[in-house]
Amino acid sequence: MNRGYIPSLMNPPFRPAGYHAAFKRPLPFDQYLCEHFFPRIPEGDDTIVTQALLQRNQALMPTVAEQASINQMVSKVKQILDNVQNTPKKVPNVEIQEIREVGSFKKGIMMTKSNIADLVVILKTLPTVELVMTLGQKIVDELKSEQKEIFGCVSRPYGCEIAGTQAVVRIYVTIIPPNVPLLEPDLHMPAHILQQNMAMIRHSRWFEENGNTSTMKVLVRCLKDMKKRHEGFEKFNVWHIELIAHYAIHHTPNRQPLPLSHAFKRFLQLISTGILLPGSPSLSDPCDRAYPLNSFYEDADTDAICCDAQTLLRILCHGGINAILGNDSKQVNLTAEISIWDSVVTTPLEKAFGVDLEKMEEDFSVNEKA
């Protein structure tokens, strides 16, 4: 599996569609779309992979106490925001158009020890940092008046964060589209932040309509956990994980969804064959089709994601599913340390991007002279 490609040293972090028009890779090989020419053969017991995924999903599920505390926190914060929305001038200069639940809480893919819910607040008024903090402090004051618990409000680039002892609610602020031209860069929150926050509503709506299945939720929860544990996946956008997971499950010739074990393997195969690498046709964001997914990454980041996926796929093929998912009690850095699976030595792959070419030439010259 070759990750070789022609890197551009001047690529910006965000590239518009068509940036790599001069160099287009072919579509990544996907055996599930060409079984007529490449029939698949049995590759071990899929039951083992399925059981491992379900076991990890169960371990990642929030506890009953966590679910109760986050539900209670969200209900109270929404109630306070509803009162602000329905009572003009309750908070000076703040007019709320709408409040929407988004993120992992809304999608049903929250994980244990991450008791955080996300709300998007659409304002009619133009948001400044001070205005958002005033709204956040009002929420905190109302919460404190209702129950004896420590609450606090912290300013964040996306809005503010309401933190309690048991749960956290993040408030993402955005505005109604007609007010976007009225924003002043030195006074109000940045327009691109407000646009990103508005996109979270579209993402949650898409997930609710297309990804609201048990297979999808189990797969995404396990992949989000892998993002935390494998260094190369650090820059992997969670929204993109959800999109590629959905593709891996549902994009089949007969329109029949794949079982969990096959979807997990196919996800790693798609990443391994370069679906996010520069120049790849990639996938488009269904909520903004102007941009392919790989246009949101630095070249080195997509290379790291591809590299780790290839290493993990090799380990998966030799029976290391429990180590990949974290079910194994042994703390082994699979993408950085040599490991042995079924008498097969697996050496982590080296990154293809960011190689010091001058140093390589010097080493090559020294070796030649020797």
Automatic annotation (TrEMBL):
<dbReference type="InterPro" id="IPR052134">
    <property type="entry name" value="ILF2"/>
</dbReference>
<keyword id="KW-0238">DNA-binding</keyword>
<dbReference type="GO" id="GO:0071013">
    <property type="term" value="C:catalytic step 2 spliceosome"/>
</dbReference>
<protein>
    <submittedName>
        <fullName>DZF domain-containing protein</fullName>
    </submittedName>
</protein>
<keyword id="KW-0805">Transcription regulation</keyword>
<dbReference type="InterPro" id="IPR049402">
    <property type="entry name" value="DZF_dom_C"/>
</dbReference>
<dbReference type="GO" id="GO:0003677">
    <property type="term" value="F:DNA binding"/>
</dbReference>
<dbReference type="GO" id="GO:0045893">
    <property type="term" value="P:positive regulation of DNA-templated transcription"/>
</dbReference>
<dbReference type="Pfam" id="PF20965">
    <property type="entry name" value="DZF_C"/>
</dbReference>
<keyword id="KW-0804">Transcription</keyword>
<dbReference type="GO" id="GO:0003725">
    <property type="term" value="F:double-stranded RNA binding"/>
</dbReference>
<dbReference type="InterPro" id="IPR049401">
    <property type="entry name" value="DZF_dom_N"/>
</dbReference>
<feature type="domain" description="DZF">
    <location>
        <begin position="25"/>
        <end position="366"/>
    </location>
</feature>
<dbReference type="InterPro" id="IPR043519">
    <property type="entry name" value="NT_sf"/>
</dbReference>
<dbReference type="InterPro" id="IPR006561">
    <property type="entry name" value="DZF_dom"/>
</dbReference>
<dbReference type="Pfam" id="PF07528">
    <property type="entry name" value="DZF_N"/>
</dbReference>
<keyword id="KW-0539">Nucleus</keyword>
<keyword id="KW-0010">Activator</keyword>
